[in-house]
Design a protein that fits this description.
The protein has 549 residues and is mostly helical. It has 2 domains: 1-59 and 67-77; 144-535, Alpha/alpha barrel (Glycosyltransferase), CATH 1.50.10.20. It has 18 helices and 6 strands. The strands form 3 sheets. A two-stranded antiparallel ribbon has the order 1-2. Strand 1 (84-86) and strand 2 form a beta hairpin. Helix 10 (331-344) runs antiparallel to helix 11 (362-377), helix 11 packs parallel to helix 13 and helix 15 packs parallel to helix 17.
């Protein structure tokens, strides 16, 4: 018995040390399923050894009493959602599930032992000082005016009764140029230019009505303190995804869905200073700024796997608002937010994921790259090395004859959603629209058109953004298919859901109805949210004409 006790003590000590090492090194953070299986085998082996030492090799059911305590150790693992993947030649094939979209919950059940303390960010001593560019440096040639289409102008000038009784009337359309402080890339958002930009680039009366209805619902869904409450509108709830269980992750992503909602308002020209929803934007921005942490993070109370996503979404909204208004009071919180993002980038791979220095994934990369791009529009500089590292990461997940396909992580199979997100990143990082890589990527998107029966707000948003900025015939085809698939899914009824979109079955359970509605609104604002990249001819410093191979 003494020997058995000694063996038990040694095994327990070994298990404690192993668990401590796993916690400190975040060993379960990548290659989740294989590691969970290995951990399960090891734990079961330890339990078997302990039981053997204490109770003998024969189970209690072999002619013995069933009385006494029983201990069960369960390690849960999660299979990622099934999806279509792309072969190296670009063809679409059925494959084993791989991670895609917002990967925030796959490890939660298997990592209950991970410390609840927030992971510390990497030291920021190595982060270059962010500088503010001069007004002349930030300017680009404005997009020329186009005639104001009467029918879309009427939608733009719709009264409050077309949206919500409590909402102010929309401004009448006019021909005024954008204010001089608005960066040219955002100039088509302002009243009097939106309808012209929409009709010139594929929008319609129906898309504009859908956007206004979505903004009205979002305004009504805002909480009194300025946030959009994810849990109150279905965030963190399970959706019907075979083999995929999120375990409530997303219920605390208020800062993330608040950022997305603000981006939807900003995309239609509303800021905290002007626009029919200026009050809603002002309260949302104030909520984020007042709760920014000392290290610059805007993640709020989000869970570990959702935190950096939430930070990125909220920080992009802060950057766009600062850029559109020139409000100096937003400069310091924006600089802190960008510094935090820079501190979280892997110095070796150029990627971002969950904790500081993680090797990275393409889904996370998209939000952080967009933050750097938006920060540049607000006048920040000093981000060139981070952008160069981001291009390096994009190369590590690329495949295909021209490098246009992209996977979630290096070594995994490419998917449509990650190809779309990678293409959007490449274009915002300066890749010319006529590059062979761009052409290969848009061919992939063309083979996976949006369909009403299988909505995916995340994939549709990035594919629309990438197609729009790439331009060409593929954009026209994608745009027709998008409108045919997305518009019928919007709620049109007298209940409190009018104007919103139901959470989709892929990632809608993470952020709920606010997430799905904000993403859909931004997707339908694509015609004027940004000046198309293929229309911008000014060179971008440090961007090669061909990507590094």
């Amino acid at each position: 018995m003494h020997t058995s006790g000694l063996v038990w003590a040694v095994l327990a000590a070994g298990a404690a040390v192993s668990l401590a090492v796993i916690v400190r090194t975040k060993w379960l953070q990548s290659h989740t399923l294989p590691k969970c299986v290995l951990l399960s085998v090891v734990l079961h082996a330890v339990v078997a050894a302990v039981c053997s030492c204490l109770g003998g090799l024969s189970p209690a059911s072999w002619g013995r009493s069933d009385s006494g305590p029983m201990t069960m150790v369960v390690v849960a693992a999660e299979d990622p959602a099934e999806e279509r993947v792309l072969a190296a030649d670009g063809s679409s094939v059925a494959a084993e599930p791989v991670a895609d979209g917002i990967d925030v919950a796959g490890l939660e059940a298997a990592t209950r032992s991970v410390t609840a303390e927030e992971p510390a960010a990497a030291p920021v001593d190595h982060v270059p000082l962010l500088e503010v560019a001069s007004e002349d440096e930030a300017k680009e040639e404005p997009h020329p005016e186009t005639p104001e289409p009467t029918e879309l102008a009427a939608v733009e000038a719709a009264s409050a009764s077309a949206i919500r009784d409590h909402s102010p009337a929309l401004p009448a359309a006019g021909g005024a140029a954008a204010p001089s402080h608005v960066p040219p890339i955002y100039a088509d958002r302002v009243a009097g230019r939106r309808s012209a930009a929409a009709v010139a680039r594929g929008g319609s009366v129906e898309t504009e009505r859908a956007v206004q209805a979505a903004l009205a619902w979002l305004a009504a869904a805002q909480s009194a303190d300025g946030r959009w409450n994810a849990a109150r509108h279905g965030g963190g709830e399970e959706r019907s995804v075979p083999g995929h269980h999120r375990h409530g992750v997303g219920a605390k992503s208020d800062h993330g869905v608040t950022g997305l909602s603000l981006l939807a308002f900003l995309g239609a020209g509303n800021t905290h200073q002007e626009g029919p929803y200026s009050e809603a934007v002002a309260r949302g921005i104030r909520f984020l700024v007042d709760r920014q942490r000392a290290d610059g993070s805007l993640a709020g109370d989000a869970e570990f796997f959702a935190a950096l996503y939430c930070h990125g979404m909220a920080a992009i909204a802060l950057a766009e608002c600062c850029a559109m208004t020139g409000d100096a009071s937003l400069r310091q919180p924006l600089e802190k937010a960008v510094r935090y993002t820079l501190s979280m980038q892997s110095p070796s791979t150029g990627g971002w994921r969950y904790a500081a220095g993680d090797k990275g994934d393409t889904s996370q990369l998209g939000w952080q790259v967009m933050l750097l791009t938006s920060g540049r529009q607000a006048g920040l500089t000093g981000m060139e090395s981070a952008e160069a590292r981001a291009r390096t990461f994009l190369q590590s997940v690329s495949s295909g004859r021209a490098g246009g396909l992209a996977a979630y992580r290096p070594g995994e199979r490419p998917s449509m959603a990650m190809t779309a997100e990678a293409l959007a990143c490449r274009l915002f990082l300066g890749m010319p629209a006529d590059h062979p890589c761009v052409g290969e990527a848009v061919e992939v998107l063309a083979r996976s058109p949006p369909e009403t029966r299988s909505p995916n707000a995340y994939a549709w948003y990035y594919a629309t953004l990438a197609s729009f900025h790439a331009g060409g015939p593929q954009w026209e085809a994608w745009n027709r298919q998008l409108q045919a698939a997305l518009l019928p899914l919007q709620r049109r009824e007298s209940s409190g859901l009018d104007g919103s979109w139901d959470p989709d079955p892929v990632w809608g359970g993470h952020g709920g109805r606010v997430y799905s509605t904000a993403m859909a609104a931004m997707t339908l604002e694509v015609y004027y949210r940004h000046l198309p990249m293929h229309r911008q001819t000014l060179p971008i410093a440090g961007v090669p004409s061909q990507p590094p191979r």
